[in-house]
């Protein structure tokens, strides 16, 4: 089994409940309070990880009791709790597909650090195995090469952003195409659309973030 779902955040929305129900047999990892939220939804965390500063002592004891494994991190560290969770997954399974789920977005700095995660050297080789999703968006990452992408159900908008300088970005099969565009500074090409159910893109250098969104 190569699919791992990582839940962070402070609350469970109806969308999160739906995803937990859909993938209840997957390996779920709870980050900090996310572990307690999983237990409340009837899921035994495959791993609970974090400094657990967002749970009470009683909730922490519940997490320790019902999780298959628990890793308590120090408050002062070089990685965020979510980054530590991804590293733990990749140490266990280098072929893992990592799905990051967070609906709360209460901390903008935490949210941005999740989106930028594949920029760091230790994660970059696994960029195409890392995904972020919520009720309105699905984010995927791509390394240099030729790629095809299918339109996600219920997603009407696709946007492209370079997280590192990119060489010769070409977009084909979209309303707004590009041809061999070099982009140095991080730039978002927003509000593009598929012409059909599939498009393609290619680039020779850098790291590309692709976001499919529901425009509502």
TrEMBL record:
One of its GO terms (biological process) is thiamine diphosphate biosynthetic process. NCBIfam families: thi_PPkinase. The keyword Zinc-finger does not apply. It comes from Atopococcus tabaci. Residues 145-209 form the Thiamin pyrophosphokinase thiamin-binding domain. This is Thiamine diphosphokinase. Keywords: ATP-binding, Kinase, Nucleotide-binding, Transferase. GO terms for molecular function: ATP binding; kinase activity; thiamine binding; thiamine diphosphokinase activity. The keyword Transferase applies.
């Amino acid at each position: 089994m190569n699919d791992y779902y990582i839940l962070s955040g402070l609350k469970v929305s109806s969308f999160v409940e739906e995803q937990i129900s859909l993938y209840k047999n997957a390996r779920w990892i709870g980050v900090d309070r996310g572990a307690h939220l999983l237990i409340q939804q009837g899921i035994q965390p495959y791993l609970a990880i974090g400094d657990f500063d967002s749970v009470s002592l009683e909730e922490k004891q519940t997490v320790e009791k019902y999780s298959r494994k628990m890793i308590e991190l120090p408050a002062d560290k070089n990685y965020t709790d979510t980054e530590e969770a991804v590293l733990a997954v990749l140490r266990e399974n280098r072929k893992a597909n990592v799905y990051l789920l967070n609906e709360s977005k209460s901390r903008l700095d935490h949210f941005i650090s999740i989106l930028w995660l594949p920029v760091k050297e230790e994660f970059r080789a696994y960029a195409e195995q890392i995904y972020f999703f919520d009720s309105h968006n699905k984010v995927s990452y791509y390394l240099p090469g030729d790629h095809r992408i299918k339109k996600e159900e219920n997603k009407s908008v696709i946007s492209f952003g370079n997280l590192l300088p990119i060489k010769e970005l070409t977009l084909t099969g979209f309303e707004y195409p590009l041809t061999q565009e070099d982009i140095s500074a991080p730039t978002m090409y927003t509000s593009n659309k598929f012409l059909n159910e599939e498009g393609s893109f290619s680039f020779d250098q850098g790291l590309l973030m692709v976001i499919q969104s529901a425009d509502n």
